């Protein structure tokens, strides 16, 4: 099995593997999947409070025998814990489930607050009950977790450009990473450049675009991983279209977090860690459809991505 083991550097100075293992969905399968990933060579695991997979990730790490210090763990604060007084408690719960005393990267999952409380999706007559915590105040509470050592780095996910600009202006720790939907069908070049300029590493979720069945907007089009341009480029490197999609992210200096519960595919995804030539990057530029597959604005009661590509 060959992969480059590309390492990226956060603005904190910490290095972490560009290709990580995503654990969204398939909760029951995650202990075995994460164990398989660690055995294959992954050392970057991405989870979140809302996924319900933190206990499985913790269990797999324990079973693997891989020292905690060799694994980079990202988890995320959920929307019902945005009140500044709830942030540390939420992180403590994640730490307990993961069986660790620190998180390498702690992200605010969305800028949008839900009503405070234990209910992850508080609803009234089917409508989400929103909260009134400002994401800037939530982030300031996250900054305290860096000072206490419980989080080695902090960042955000699913923010717009305007929200990022305001965050940088009104807080003191520049986010180490921003996790966003990014793939060859949604390339967001100017947004990506803004992050580079500000020293913020992008982590690409859904690096295979509409491969996920949950995305309704991708149902009536061909799968990104079957795109003929990616397949053609793949032939040159002896790789699949899916591996080329991952390499596109890695070559651009991003982290990518593919997910799978199939051992063979888990290995294949790690082999997406290689560099593409400049002319291949140029070819991939031509397939940008500016199509966003994940936008829960209506459900979450917040207008996401208002100034970004792919907003309907």
Task: Explain briefly what this protein structure is.
Helices cover 35% and strands 13% of the residues. The chain is α/β, with parallel strands linked by helices and 312 residues long.
How does the SSE layout of this entry go?
Blueprint lengths: L6 E3 L5 E3 L3 E2 L7 H11 L3 E3 L7 H11 L7 E6 L6 H15 L6 E4 L14 E2 L2 E2 L6 H13 L6 E4 L3 H10 L6 E5 L7 H9 L3 E5 L22 H10 L3 H11 L3 E2 L6 H8 L7 H8 L11 H4 L12
Parallel strand pairs: 3-4, 4-5, 5-6, 6-9, 9-10, 10-11, 11-12
Antiparallel strand pairs: 1-2, 7-8
Helix pairs in contact: 1-2, 1-9, 2-3, 3-4, 7-8
What's the multimeric state?
single chain
Annotation field: number of helices: 11
- pLDDT < 50 stretches: none
What sort of overall outline do the alpha carbons produce when their principal axes are compared?
globular
Series of secondary-structure elements, N-terminal to C-terminal: EEEHEHEHEEEHEHEHEHHEHHH
Q: Level of helix content?
A: 25-40%
